[in-house]
Amino acid sequence: MNRCVxxxxxxxxxxxxxxxxxxxxxxxxxSLGGLRHPSRAAASSSERNGGRAPDTSLFVxxxxxxxxxxxxxxxxxxxxxxxxxSEVLKILNKFYKRKExxxxxxxxxxxxxxxxxxxxxFRKYIMESSFLSADVHIILNDICCGAGHVDDLFPFFLRxxxxxxxxLDCMDDLRKISDLRLPPNWYPExxxxxxxxxxxxxxxxxGKTHHAIQRxxxxxxxxxxxPLKLLAHEIFQKSNDASVPCDLVTGEERVLVDPEGRQxxxxxxxxxxxxxxxxxxxxxxxxxxxxRDPARGWAWTxxxxxxxxxEVHVCxxxxxxxxxxxxxxxxxxxxxxxxxxxxxxxxxxDYALESLDNLRPGDCIVCFNKNDIYSVSRQIEARGxxxxxxxxxxxxxTKLTQAKKFNDPDDPCKILVATDAIGMGLNLSxxxxxxxSLMKPSINEKGExxxxxxxxxxxxxxxxxxxxxxxxxxxxxxxTMHRDDLVLLKEILNRSxxxxxxxxxxxxxxxxxxxxxxxxxxxLSNLMDIFVSLSQVDGLYFVCNVDDFKFLADxxxxxxxxxxxxxxxxxAPINKKQPFVCTSLLKFARQFxxxxxxxxxxxxxxxxxxLVPPKNIKDLVHLEAVHDVFDLYLWLSYRxxxxxxxxxxxxxxxxxxxNIIQIGVxxxxxxxxxxxxxxxxxxxxxxxxxxxxxANQEQFxxxxxxxxxxxxxxxxxxxxxxxxxxxxxxxxxxxxxAARLVREGLLTEEMLKQLEREWQKGRECSCPIAHARQHSxxxx
Length: 780
Description:
Keywords: ATP-binding, Helicase, Hydrolase, Mitochondrion, Mitochondrion nucleoid, Nucleotide-binding, Transit peptide. Pfam families: DEXQc_Suv3, Helicase_C, SUV3_C, Suv3_C_1, Suv3_N. This is ATP-dependent RNA helicase SUPV3L1, mitochondrial. One of its GO terms (molecular function) is RNA helicase activity. Its EC number is 3.6.4.13. β11 (387-390), α17 (396-407) and β12 form a beta-alpha-beta unit. This protein has 32 helices and 20 strands. The strands form five sheets. It has an eight-stranded mixed β-sheet, with helices on both faces. A six-stranded parallel β-sheet has the order 9-16-13-10-12-11. Strands 14-15 form a two-stranded antiparallel sheet. It is elongated. By secondary structure, the chain is an alpha/beta fold.
């Protein structure tokens, strides 16, 4: 008797008399832990909040271990009797099929997906546990004996569901944390002052940024925020040349002009690095239209709303005027708009270039991938012309050197081959812009890759590089390489630029830390997914794409790091398409987790420093990746100085590497020839992906694979294919490969004809190229 009293005393107490039998005991547990009984209706979490229902596919269930007998033994069995597991299984399955239970689960945040997952886990837990807690055991025994109803299981099922989905218990808190509807309130310093907002609107080469910078230089203190390191460097140099002491702050570099290390009154920085707590007289935000950028737009939103400056000068496209005005209306600030017109005329020609034989000094051929860069530059130099090369992954120093070579009137290099990297950040003396193609791969807001014609804003930005006011060419011209593209180019340029409607936002480290407090077992990638799913924004904002962040979070998830450190590593600005850079980040994180500083010797061993000039394109691509690894080290060194202690030494060898890369780029045609010589040749003729009109070459590569042909290893940039592929394409009238590609939209009939013309022309050029190879010196 004393034993039974002791056992009953360990059960949760309830008001009223003690139960007289096991059937009555079930009543004790119907309201266990404050859980709702089936007879009580409840409003769903989303209805209480007025927010959207969460994407429950992001909720990852936790594993709950089956119970093993404790020192007290099986209390439930002692109070009642051992359970018949086969009967219990029938009861559980009957519970799952009850529509009332599914409805009640929905009212408690369990949609059909979560209800199913929670039931599978609950059933497994019940069936695999060698004993159950007394409350669950008694309820199951009551139901088996006919003294209870299957619905009485719901409170215990819900308790288990909240164990495996802890977010169900804190959904209200999570919604409050992820509420992004009032971003202006995040910046109390800016809200404490009445700012003057001036929007300098105009096309490329209209002088809008020049006027803003003049006000910046005249101010007692100022900050310039630009999208590129090159632009920050340019303003840093211009300020100091004008005897206005100015510091430089980028993700990878800090330069204080004061020899004693005191901060200057002016600073030029990349926009992600701007301080929203330091007061300034004047702030300049350049390229404001990038506020819509799916990946980086949040940085412009933060600067616009948060800079604590008496005057904020915003420069960019007129398409952003309405959005900036609305955003400032929400802060109680008015916007003064100053419109500018282009300083020099620009003409869209009525004829295409059609042949590289028609090139003339001051021409710039714009390509949208490196494959086209390699192909076009090789064909230009085969004609005895020198060309400069600029593309996005080149180090800033190499870009500047190539730009200087092209701009130098005494240098024989008069042709530039470049990607859209010339759209901003470089001063170039271009007479004529020639679009090699108008198709460009892009990433939409969902993180999906798309292939489409360039938008009007980008076409105008690139076209505007021709005939700049400060260059030797006072009038600019624009055309295309192929006649068929010219009509489309004119159509694109004649379109009005659609107004920018939304500004980007991004979860902060503090917000994710608060999420982690409520969901301690969730991975960082999953925390980010749930945050974005629950986030609420008003019509002026969108949440930026976080795919790159999640990619890095998944990559380093297995490494033991605290959440703040993990978050910082995941915001590192690296290209996830570069395996060596991603591997380096992984090794950095692993070394960091061991609390072992990443020294200069360590980084030299990792990168096999010292390195030699590239012998082929593959070597050049690797050197560019190593340069990015050094950038990553420097970026991390400003966030974890004790763990990345040798920033100055790494910066020194990075400058050496920049010079090595410059050597390679200066002789890029020789590198292409060397890569070509090491590739497999069929009848002394190779068909290269870069010879194709710009299209989705990755898709084309897989579509044109010849059965039985081994994949060629080496530089991914070259993507060589044998000539039989072309012959297959030429016979496109009988259900051939080319016909399939046309049907799939990867090629058009015009592209096929152009490809045949270029192939024939390539064959005619093969002899002069071979002759040039025989007479070229090893240094060329």
